[in-house]
Amino acid sequence: MSTSRIKVLCVDDSALIRDLLTEIINSQPDMEVVAVAPDPIAARDLIKRHNPDVLTLDVEMPRMDGLDFLERLMRLRPMPVLMVSSLTQAGSEVTLRALELGALDFVAKPSLGIRSGMLEYANEIAEKLRAAARSRPHRARRRNEPPPERLKAPLISSEKLIIIGASTGGTEAIRRVLEPLPANSPAILVTQHMPGGFTRSFAERLDRLCQIRVKEASDGERILPGHAYIAPGDAHLKLARSGANYVARLDEGPPVNRHRPSVDVLFHSAATQAGRNAIGVLLTGMGKDGAAGLVEMRQAGAPTIAQDEASCVVFGMPREAIALGGAAEVLPLEEIAPRLLSLVTASGRAQRV
Question: pLDDT of 183-208, one tens digit each?
Fold first, then answer.
């Protein structure tokens, strides 16, 4: 990050989008667009010339695909990249692949000509660019990379629940927690800050990679072991009871901590409904959503874990939770999955396959 203004390079084949991003970014007191490029080929020379702090990158562009460029960039010159994506099924799948390759976060492409909501959109871009400039570019997941070492735990308690919250950098962090878990893992509920239209693709991608079943949560469905339930991008996810069973509840009420879904909403419901039978996990993300909720879970007797600073892409939410005393343990990302299994097994120890 530069010591003065954050230097941004915008790469997009649309002149209208380039102009809009330039207008938004240059209106901020602490950042500026140092150059724009219509495609990755032009961007390569501009990166060398201007040494930007953050890159905004379109997904679909002429001359070189955005994903191919991103993969090369993160291998040869890792830097914070904010994807600018279209809100389509195809666009969401490509964006999730970009996050696997090392992109920090994404924003949806704005609806050109619609000025209502533009201030909120501008604030979102500025906030994510600031987080990107403070972030740690993480190792990209290579194409055809073998899956992580699988864990096994034959004596898992059927009463336990795992409750996970994340924001910036969370899509990859969640994958790295869920992917090693065995098919007989406890039920898992996840809130990841993500707009509607992306969470279903996110759940489907995880379902292909994981031994557990992963799906977008539906209102009223029973919470079952061996399943992970992802909060839809436009609703709060809550844990509730129906007789002897746990069920998912979706709430389209107002944002909490400026987010819907909110991690605090999920954590609060887990503290109330499951108490010591839940385990709370707060992963990478900017802001403070989930910090107060993790405190509630710990006060209700639940084991609680926060991701450590060194392995976070953005050490915001975990830092706030640690400062409030909400985290009983602070762990590197790669140690969280084994620790979760040790907390839910009768023997107290997870084994590697």
Answer: 999 999 999 999 888 899 999 999 99
The residue from 58, 289, 308, 311 that is catalytic is 289
Question: What is the pTM for the complete model shown?
Answer: 0.89
Catalytic residue among 167, 185, 262, 269: 167
**Which two structure tokens, joined as six digits, stand for 89?**
């099924």
Q: What domains can be seen in the chain, in order of their start residue? A: 6-134 (3.40.50.2300), 151-352 (3.40.50.180)
CA dihedral 262, 268, 269, 274 (to 10 degrees): 140
193 assigned to active site = yes
Report, as an integer, the average pLDDT of 272-292: 97
pLDDT-based confidence at residue 85 (cuts at 50, 70, 90): confident
| Residue 27 bears catalytic tag | no
pLDDT at 347: 43
Spell out a b/e string for 69-95, using b for 16 or more CB atoms within 10 Å of the CB, else e: bbbebbeeeebbbbbbbbeeeebbebb
Tokens 């976060």, residue? Answer: 105
Indicate if 167 belongs to the active site: yes
